[in-house]
UniProtKB/TrEMBL annotation:
One of its GO terms (biological process) is tRNA processing. Residues 144-188 are annotated as: Disordered. GO terms for cellular component: nucleolar ribonuclease P complex. InterPro entries: Rpr2/Snm1/Rpp21. Gene3D superfamilies: 6.20.50.20. This is Rpr2-domain-containing protein. It comes from Morchella conica CCBAS932. The lineage of its organism: Eukaryota, Fungi, Dikarya, Ascomycota, Pezizomycotina.
């Protein structure tokens, strides 16, 4: 059946008001939601699934998941699941069928092909001669790496000292400029007067 615009506005108002009052005044919210369900069934209006899931048909409580209602999932067969909505105000539970996403069957075949390709392309195990050559390379590169890290450490220290000196020099220059600009006076600052002792 088609509904007239006033009924649609009334249902929207009841929906918004029941959600607004769900946490502050649950009993008024439940009354408004019950009225919403009554008017929709009286006028023959089908409510969306989201509205039906979030309002308990028994007591009219607006579901605030985790506070006054609970949702759990139960598996029914290979490709079906049931969502169970339980109202904790009245204890009524309602189940709704939910289709599961279908698995892709080709993923296992692709993984096995990939493993086969990796095992075919794997390098042969190293020999003793290869191991000796690698040890020599590692030792010579270790000495070069040590010298390089020492040079990096020294350059970092120099950069840090330049940065620290420049900051201290800027502060000194600023302090001297303030003293020079004050000209007369006693050479006291407000902080000098606040010191005790």
């Amino acid at each position: 059946m088609t509904s007239n615009p006033t009924t649609a506005l009334q249902l929207r108002h009841l929906w918004a008001a029941s959600h607004l009052l769900a946490t502050t005044s649950p009993s008024v919210s439940a009354h408004l939601a019950t009225r919403l369900l009554h008017i929709s069934s009286e006028k023959g209006i089908n409510l969306p699934d989201s509205v039906e899931r979030s309002v308990c048909n028994a007591c009219g409580t607006v579901a605030v998941w985790g506070i006054n209602s609970h949702v759990s999932k139960q598996r029914k067969g290979k490709d079906k699941a049931m969502m169970v909505f339980e109202c904790q105000m009245c204890g009524r539970s309602r189940a709704s069928a939910v289709p599961l996403a279908k698995r892709r069957r080709g993923s296992r075949a692709r993984k096995s092909k990939l493993k086969a390709a990796v095992t075919i392309a794997a390098p042969p195990p190293p020999t003793k001669a290869d191991a000796k050559a690698e040890v020599g390379v590692v030792q010579s590169s270790g000495k070069a790496a040590g010298a390089q890290s020492l040079a990096n450490a020294n350059s970092r220290k120099r950069a840090k000292s330049r940065k620290g000196n420049s900051l201290s020099e800027i502060l000194k220059a600023k302090k001297q400029q303030q003293q020079a600009s004050s000209g007369g006076g006693f050479g006291l600052d407000l902080m000098d007067l606040m010191k005790t002792g």
